[in-house]
Structure formats: structure tokens, C-alpha cells
Amino acid sequence: MVKKYYAVKKGRHPGIYKTWTECQKEVNGYPNAKFKSFLTLEGANEWLQTTGNTVTSTKAVNYSDDILVYTDGGSRNHGNKLGQHVKADDKAAWAYFIQTKDQAYTGTAGEFGATNNKMEITALIKALTKLLELGFQAQPITAILDSHYVLDPIMKGWLTNWQRRGWLTAGGKPVANKELWEEIVALLPQFPNLHFDWTKGHATNAGNNKVDELLNKTMDQL
């Protein structure tokens, strides 16, 4: 289930809200209220802070009750230029980091000859599978990824369109990593309080940096 963030730029209490009900209370009946919904926290914050109408006091989204999930995938391949491909001896790996109030869980594994995209999807599958094993699927969960390859199909409805077209893209080409996407489709409905957020990779997000470190250590050991 994909949730939205509701940014209130002009209302009773400007800030970011996690539900439309909360947002509605801030803008209904307020003169010239200005608000907008976003799929990511980062997008909501950026809109709030645009030049000329900066919010001086915002209500931050509180993740204190959420289980935080970070996933990442990587491949040290030679296919970084047009026309090149991943080679059979190229190292690849995935990793996840699950943080609850009381405990942290990590997982990682590697293989040869896999693409970066395959590892990105696999990381999310492994994390969701672990959450099911732990019995956490009904709890509020925020999955934070740096991969638009994984996030866009989930958050922009591409998965639904692909299935409707028989797993073909809008251009009529077969969807890559179809079997893994089918696993995602089977897993997501089991998480009623799961929402996704994007973070910039290799930057300041500690959880994202941790999974990057984990998968690189795994590749080092292959």
C-alpha cells in the first residue's frame, strides 16, 4: 500500500502530514489555503521550502513508531557503457537493514553475473520476506530506497499496467526481471501499512550508507 505525504504551505499549522484527514483539518475553511500531496517526504519538504514562501515552522513526519527498512543492490560490472553487458564473472550483491525500536536485522548475499537492477529488486524481496518471518507485516513500515528502478513501478502504478499488458512495457517490450516483479506483486498486499520513500544514494542517509557498505563487503568476499 503506497501512502502519500500532505504538505501544507499555507494553513492553520504549516507542515507535513501523513494522512489526508490530518491535512484536511489544517486547510478546510482556511483563507487561500495552499497544500499539495507528494509520494516522497523529500519532495514534500522541497516544495515547502521553495523560495518566496518558506515555512518557518513545520510539523515533521514522525517515524518513531515505524519500522524502518533500507535496501540496496549493486554490481561491479563492465557494462557501464552503451553496448556493453554484465559479464559472467562480474560481482553483484544485495543487502537490507531493518530497524525497529528494539532491534536491528541485516541480510546480504552475492552472486556472479547479475545486474545492478536485479540486485535492487532482490534486496526488497529479501527484506519483505524477512519482515513476514518476523511477523511484522501489519506494523507501520517505511521502506527507504535510492533506486528509482524499484520505486517508480511501485509508486507510479507501472506494475499494474505491466500486468494488464501481459508483462509488457508501454513500448511493447517484455518487462525485465519479470519473475522478481511477480514476487513483489505477491508480497506487497501482505503489508497494509507499508509506504515508500526515496533517498539520495551515497550521501547523508546513515541507513542507506549501511546497506551500501554491507553489499560492498559481500562483493569483496566473493
TrEMBL record:
Required co-factors: Mg(2+)
Biological process according to GO: DNA replication, removal of RNA primer
Ranges in coiled-coil conformation: none
Family: Belongs to the RNase H family.
Nuclease is among the record's keywords: yes
EC number(s) reported in the record: 3.1.26.4
PROSITE patterns given in the database record: RNASE_H_1
Assembly description: Monomer.
Pfam family, one: Cauli_VI
Key words of the record: Endonuclease, Hydrolase, Magnesium, Metal-binding, Nuclease
Reactions listed under catalytic activity: Endonucleolytic cleavage to 5'-phosphomonoester
Biological function: Endonuclease that specifically degrades the RNA of RNA-DNA hybrids.
One term of GO molecular function: RNA-DNA hybrid ribonuclease activity
Residues annotated as domain RNase H type-1: 63-220
Protein name per its UniProtKB record: Ribonuclease H
SUPFAM superfamilies xrefs: L9 N-domain-like, Ribonuclease H-like
